Structures are given as C-alpha cells and as structure tokens.
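User: I'm curious what two different proteins look like when written out as structure tokens. Can you demonstrate?

Assistant: Sure. I'll show them one after the other, since each token string lines up with its own sequence. Here's the first protein:
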Amino acid sequence: MIVCALGYGYLAKYVFQRICFLGIKGIGITSKNLTYNGSANITLVGRERIKEILTYSTHLLITAPPDNSGCPIFNKFNYQISNSNIKSLIYISSTGVYGNHNGNWVDENSSLNGKSKFDKIRLKSEKQWQKFCKKNNLNLNLVRVAGIYGPERIIKLNKKNQVDVVFKKNHYFSRIHILDAARLISKIILQNYSNEIWNVADDLPSSREDFLLEAIKIKKIKNFSIISFEEYKKALSDRSKKFWLNNKRVSNKKVKKYFKYRFIFPSYRDGIKNLKEQI
C-alpha cells in the first residue's frame, strides 16, 4: 500500500505517523519546504511531482481545502487519477456541510443544509468525488471532520490580558482532538470500507463558552469577561460568522460502532487537560 496525501499538513502528518510505522509507504505532497526524519516510510515532495507520484500510489488521502470551483485536486488531476493504479480515495470534508440544525443531533444521513459559500464549495467537492469514483469504480470514503484541536492548534490564553468569553445560548460546536482524528482516519484507510461517509467528532458537543471557561479554569485565569454574541459578531469575518450560523451536535455513533472505537479524549475537558501547558 502506498498512500499519497495531497495537501499534506497538520492532519496528514498525524495520520502518516500512525500508518507508516505499520510499514505502509506514505508520500506527502506539499507546497511548503518540509522534511521528515521520523520514518523511512514517509517522504515529502513538492507539488511539481504530483503527476509522477499519482502513477504508483494505491491510495489517496485528500486534505486540500476546496476553492470556488470545488476540489482543486479533482479539477487538476482527475484524468491522471483515473489512469493510475489508485484503488481507494479518502476525502477529508467538514461537518460544516450539515449547516444549521438548530442544535439538534446530526448523523451521516442528515440533511445537508450548508448555506455559506464555504460550506457549499465543500459539498460541491464531495459530489465531484462521489460521481468520479462511481464512474471509475474506485472506493471512496468521505470523512466529515469536526473542529480539530491539539498541539499547536489550541487557543492561547495570556494571564496578563483580559479574556473575552462569547455567550450564545444553546449554541453547539463539535470538536475532536488531533490524536483521535488521526487514529480514526487511519482505521478508515486500513480497513478499506467502500463508499461510506463518516463523522469524526468526539462525544461531547458544547458551547464556545463552556470550552473557554474550562481552559480558563485549568489555567487559573482571573481576568475574563462574558460578552454577548450580538456584540462579538460586529467584528467577525464572513468565514468566522458561518461557524456561528451553523448550530448542531455531530453524532459519532457510526465510527464507534464500526471500529469499536474508544476515544483517547472523549470530550474537550479531557483534551484541554492534556494541552494545559500549551494554552
């Protein structure tokens, strides 16, 4: 098995650390000047070698974000992929495609209500790969990932500055620690399910307020204030606003059932404790 990660970055790095130490060859395609010395099975190369790498890869892990035309990997390289040895494709999508469900639970069969431009182009990317893989008889796994946090991806709190905690009643976000996300995606790659959709999120959706207050408690920060969302939203970018328009709780029952999975960090409380020194 040779897994090519297109859009190699934070998530793919952790996935490769798991699967490549099992003897699988991992090739990361990146625009950044990166090297990796942790395993002989991991190779990082520049974008100029994409067509070459596609000729001998067997699995694709696509983490590249979409643009206005959908998935840039699909739009630029679908011909090369259809004429390669690739048998299986894992597309990393977002739980944002579910859009707003007024705080209710969503699973892999829930309606896709994404209304923002960013959610719509993510959904467009999913549909591109679904149609392509069906036409070319390739295994496809769509992985809808909740907000990822972990080392180098956690809010920094400074005791010297006031921390603003945003309050929006009954508004939920779903999250997942990078170690659990990487373990689950590794299982999806290795067990090679065909034409499945997976939600990757932890057990406990929560408000942004609860998440921040937990971090504040662990860091023993005294200088903080609660502000209303109505006040806070005045300074938000369009991309940030869409996270607050989508209110839902993402169910992980499917991955727990299929993989008999037990989370390392079942909730943000467990994850924040693990990251205490980085907050």
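Here's a second, unrelated protein for contrast:
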Amino acid sequence: MATAGVWILPSRGHSGDRLPAFLKAAIATGVSTPGVIVVDRDDYEANLNAYDSLNLPTDWVIAVYDGPTWTADKSEWAWKTLCHDAPWIGWIADDLKPETQGWDQKVIAQLSGWNVVSTNDGLFAPKKMNGAICWSGDLLRAVGYMFAPGLRHFYVDDTWERLGKRTGCWKVDLDIMVRHEHDLVTGKLDQMSDRKNASAGHDERVFSDWCKKEEGEAGERILKLMESSGVTMFRPDTTGISVMLGVPSMTRQYDGRFVVAYTGTRDYVRHFGGDLVLA
C-alpha cells in the first residue's frame, strides 16, 4: 500500500482518445506526483495495445480492476486498497486537461490535514467541485469514503460541496486551471456517456437518502477532525428553540431540491439542540 500521496484516475473505454490527451497535458504541465489509472479488466484486455502504449508520467501506473465497473467502485477500491494511509489522495477524470504549470503541486501545497482543495475547471467552478480534486488523507479517513456508499458515478461533487459548506473544509483555487472538456460541451457523446447517464436516477435517490441519513454525522466527523487539528469551531446552542417554517403549497408537493435543503437544515438545527418544523 502506498505511503505517499496518489492521484486516482478511473477510466473506461477511452484508451485511444481522452486518456492519452489527459496524460499528454499532464506531462506538458510538469506533473511530478504519483498517479494510478484504474481500468476494468475487460476493457484492459480488449484494448491491451492501446493501454500498453500510453506515455505515462513518472511514477504513474495502470491498475487492472476486477470489481463492479462504475466510477465510484473503481475510485473507492483504489483508495482503500492502494493508498488508504496516504497523506493526501487526489482524484481526476480523463476528460480533464491541466493547463497550469505545476498544477498538482500547487493543489497539494494548500492541504491542511483536514481540508479538500479543488481547482478551476473553466466550466462549473467555483459553484461546483470539479477540476483536480485533492483531499487531506485524514479528512477522507474521518468521513470514511470518497463516493457516498451506493453511488455509481454522479453526486460525489454534490456530496463534498454540502460537507464543505457545512464545515468549511472545502477550498477552491481558481488560479489553477484543469479544464473540463465535458461531453455535453464537446458534443462527443458515446456509449460510455449513455452508460453513465443511465445511472443518474439511481444516484439521485442514493444522494437524497445520504442527505437525510448520513450528511449530519459525516459533517460531525469532519468538525471533530478540524477541532483536533487546532481549528477553533463555533457551535451554536439552539437548545429549547423551535422554529416553524411556513412554506405554502397549493398542490401539497415540493421540489426535490427544496426537500433536500430543508432536511439538511432541519438536521443541522436539531444537531445543536433545537428543532425546525415545516408547516
């Protein structure tokens, strides 16, 4: 198991296009930290020549994976099997292209032991966690996962955005550009796009459930880590305070995004001793 930090790059079906393009850009911008490209065995064996001819940066390797072929499963396997005890763990996708010289070192230099840092992606940042993402190892170990259990491809960004806003553990550096060439932007849709998009409904349900049942506890684990690292935390005391939130609805139905936001706020208030009731 690696003791140094590692970038995890899960990939499938792009050994001849996106993956070599990312690697070329990473080398051109001076990547100098280790990385592991995680590929499914069937994909690797079907495209053996393409994978074996990739020009890898120094200290980058290909790991052949035998489990479920979803991005989340490959990423979790790589972290927990190959670099669980590392001081930092990075995550990057094959549709990204680094543009800032020394991007990897510049991200890692901003880790504190309890935070996660993401970059500019030229598309969604700073509202979304995208580009190159790097966690302090202790932060991932405190939470217990990179992708919330049950996710397949989507909502890893939403998960950590909510935790980041809840605890202050997320930092975005817009001066570091790792450009996101999203398939919806480039128009280069393929069978891999169809496959991942098919999991959107499943992942939405898993994420909604996570927000209701796990977000508060995960946030508390982060706060305890920050406190143990010397960060001064403000914990409001809402004991005995109950707030009624009036939200009229002619149809008695609410948008899913509102429900997720409401339950997260309610659980946060309850965590500190109060209550929030929807009327």
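A detail about the second structure: The CA atoms of residues 249 and 279 lie 10 Å apart.
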